[in-house]
């Protein structure tokens, strides 16, 4: 994984700012503030933000929302699986927090090209913190095995302090929509 | 194999309790009369943040001469830094405390992670005392199932297997979420990564399916958890030419390789059975308890519930005609549950899956707070509950479920679905 201080293309911060905008939208909707954008050939083609509280579905993370938006668009255009796979392989994801284990697996399954994230996720991170699902498996396959993804390139620490300060203000304000006192804590866990 | 059986899949692969990872801490002997003051102060200035299982104070009875003896107390001052000069890297206020009480520090090893078994805990305490709170032992079933509970587990697994066979004539993974307190099905789902299948692919894929079976056999031998008996129930009988290549969690990367023209069919690379079931249970929750969340458009909720079951029209019928549970449970359950307390996500619910889930689905089930997972067949190349990963043993997660494998009698699998 690349670390802070490495040179990134000029547009990296631009796209991360857009992801942070999405995180702020989530915050305004009393959701855990995580947002993302997906970029193909230097153009934003989808954005997403956390919707776990609204949907009562704790898997509706920003990444899953953005991926589903794209798949819906491409379904309407009647793209085939191989066409969809080809586009995903050119896409880069910018997300304010390290993808969790579930999202990192999903990004590997769809075959994303590269991921840029803000702060690390030391409880659930799937791109190095807890598991490393972005790196392609080095284990030998058993007897031919199933085809595996190639993994994806991962760059952390981009505008991490902005992402963290969003989390901080979210947990300080609490979640007035929560039905139970422990809910904000439990939600904290979801991203 | 001709009997049902439930096996607990533990949080950790068997490792020797004396091989647990440790970290270094700086400790010191203290005068027992200052113990309270020192511990209170140290908890303020140097809390053991990620070592909550480690006790601050170690008590040791030292035998003296002439049959006298005394209790010796030592206390952890702080964690040792990973490099070089320990004392210089200590916090100033810890240093001050050390100087004013004339403490003489030493390095000790403490176990890095909380003990997961009594054996581990006993071993940990030889280094430095820790507390032991078995995190999962309060989940029913780990210490065994009653006859009644076993029968209920077998019925729900049988139901899941029927769902897996009935969906589009293709063997897919099936998921059944159950409220075990009332033995009621909350929701069911099948894989929706690919809702129909091209016959031209079948022959080559069938070969790889056989290879898979062999791979599993060798894998299970080395695994130690599964025994040779289970081989018979590894896959559905192939006389009906059913293929397990439709199981999303077994081949999560495969969707991109579909050669056929699927443009008229519904497909989605991430709609594995568990993910669809979670979505459907969330939609059910919003429908049954609309007032507790944000006010939402009810017709939207209904649409969502409809679409989540649209992938397999046969499923509904199955639900109504199955003998898994009495009709009373099905019909009364939905109506009466709106009066009972609304659960937070899937807290307290069980998940039945025909195949061991992949890492995406396993983590989704953590997020949604499932209490127990039962699966029938292992997933040697992509399974996340013991085969490739063992998510139930990741201590950093904020929720832990108990995992069981259900061994299924051959006759259940051979019966025409």
Automatic annotation (TrEMBL), chain A:
What positions does the domain CMP/dCMP-type deaminase occupy? 10-138
- What keywords are assigned to this protein? Hydrolase, Metal-binding, Zinc
Question: In its keyword annotation, does this UniProt entry include Hydrolase?
Answer: yes
One of the record's GO molecular function terms: zinc ion binding
Q: Enumerate the SUPFAM superfamilies for this protein.
A: Cytidine deaminase-like
Q: Name one GO biological process term.
A: tRNA wobble adenosine to inosine editing
Q: Gene3D superfamilies per the record?
A: Cytidine Deaminase, domain 2
Origin superkingdom: Eukaryota
Recorded hits in PANTHER family, A to Z, give:
CYTOSINE DEAMINASE FAMILY MEMBER, TRNA-SPECIFIC ADENOSINE DEAMINASE 2
Task: Identify this protein by name.
Answer: CMP/dCMP-type deaminase domain-containing protein
From TrEMBL, chain B:
> What organism is the protein native to?
Prunus persica (Peach)
Please list the residue ranges annotated as the CMP/dCMP-type deaminase domain.
Answer: 265-388
Q: Where is the composition biased (Polar residues)?
A: 319-336
- What's in the keyword line of the UniProt record? tRNA processing
GO biological process, alphabetically ordered: tRNA wobble adenosine to inosine editing
Database matches in Gene3D superfamilies = Cytidine Deaminase, domain 2 (3.40.140.10)
Q: Which SUPFAM superfamilies match?
A: Cytidine deaminase-like
Descriptive protein name: CMP/dCMP-type deaminase domain-containing protein
* Family named by the database record: Belongs to the cytidine and deoxycytidylate deaminase family. ADAT3 subfamily.
A cellular component annotation (GO) from this entry:
nucleus
Residue ranges, annotated region (Disordered): 304-336
């Amino acid at each position: 994984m690349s670390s802070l201080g490495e040179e990134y293309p000029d547009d990296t911060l631009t796209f991360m700012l857009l992801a942070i905008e999405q995180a702020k939208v989530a915050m305004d909707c009393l959701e855990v503030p995580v947002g993302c954008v997906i970029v193909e050939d230097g153009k934003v083609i989808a954005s997403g933000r956390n919707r776990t509280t609204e949907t009562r579905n704790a898997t509706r993370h920003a990444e899953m929302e953005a991926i589903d938006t794209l798949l819906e668009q491409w379904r309407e255009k009647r793209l085939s699986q191989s066409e969809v796979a080809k586009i995903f392989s050119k896409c880069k994801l910018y997300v304010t927090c390290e993808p969790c284990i579930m999202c990192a697996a999903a990004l590997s399954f769809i075959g994303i090209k590269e991921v840029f994230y803000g702060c690390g996720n030391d409880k659930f991170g799937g791109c190095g913190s807890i598991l490393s699902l972005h790196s392609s498996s080095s284990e030998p396959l058993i007897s031919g095995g199933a085809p595996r993804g190639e993994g994806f390139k991962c760059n952390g620490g981009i505008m991490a302090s902005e992402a963290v300060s969003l989390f901080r203000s979210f947990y300080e304000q609490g979640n007035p929509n929560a039905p139970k006192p422990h809910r904000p804590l439990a939600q904290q866990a979801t991203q | 194999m001709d009997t049902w059986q439930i096996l607990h899949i533990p949080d950790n692969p068997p490792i020797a309790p004396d091989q647990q990872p440790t970290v270094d801490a700086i400790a010191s002997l203290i005068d027992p009369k200052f113990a309270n003051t020192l511990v209170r102060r140290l908890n303020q200035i140097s809390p053991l943040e990620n070592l909550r299982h480690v006790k601050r104070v170690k008590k040791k009875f030292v035998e003296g001469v002439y049959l006298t003896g005394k209790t010796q107390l030592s206390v952890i001052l702080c964690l040792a830094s990973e490099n070089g000069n320990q004392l210089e890297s200590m916090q100033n206020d810890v240093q001050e405390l050390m100087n004013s009480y004339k403490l003489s520090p030493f390095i000790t090893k403490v176990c890095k992670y909380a003990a997961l078994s009594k054996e581990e805990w006993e071993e940990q305490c030889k280094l430095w005392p820790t507390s032991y709170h078995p995190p999962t032992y309060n989940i029913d079933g780990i210490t065994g199932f009653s006859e009644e509970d076993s029968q209920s587990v077998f019925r729900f697994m049988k139901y899941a297997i029927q769902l897996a066979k009935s969906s589009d004539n293709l063997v897919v993974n099936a998921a059944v979420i159950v409220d075990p307190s009332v033995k009621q099905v909350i929701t069911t789902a099948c894989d929706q990564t690919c809702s129909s299948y091209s016959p031209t692919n079948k022959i080559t894929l069938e070969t790889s399916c056989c290879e898979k079976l062999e791979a599993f056999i060798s894998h299970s031998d080395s695994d130690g958890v599964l025994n040779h008996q289970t081989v018979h129930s590894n896959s559905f009988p192939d006389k009906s030419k059913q293929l397990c290549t439709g199981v999303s969690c077994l081949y999560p990367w495969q969707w991109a390789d579909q050669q056929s023209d699927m443009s008229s069919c519904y497909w989605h690379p991430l709609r594995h059975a568990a993910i669809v079931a979670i979505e459907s249970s969330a939609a059910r929750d919003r429908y049954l308890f609309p007032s507790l969340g944000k006010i939402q458009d009810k017709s939207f909720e209904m649409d969502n519930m409809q679409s989540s079951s649209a992938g397999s029209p046969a499923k509904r019928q199955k639900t109504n005609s199955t003998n898994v549970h009495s009709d009373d449970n099905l019909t009364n359950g939905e109506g009466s549950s709106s009066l009972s307390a609304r659960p937070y996500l899937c807290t307290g619910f069980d998940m039945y899956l025909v195949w061991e889930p992949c890492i995406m689905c396993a983590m989704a089930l953590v997020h949604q707070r499932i209490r127990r997972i039962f699966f029938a067949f292992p997933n040697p190349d992509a399974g996340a509950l013991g085969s490739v990963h063992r998510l139930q043993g990741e201590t950093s997660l904020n929720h832990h479920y108990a995992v069981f494998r259900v061994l299924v009698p051959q006759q259940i699998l051979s019966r025409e679905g």
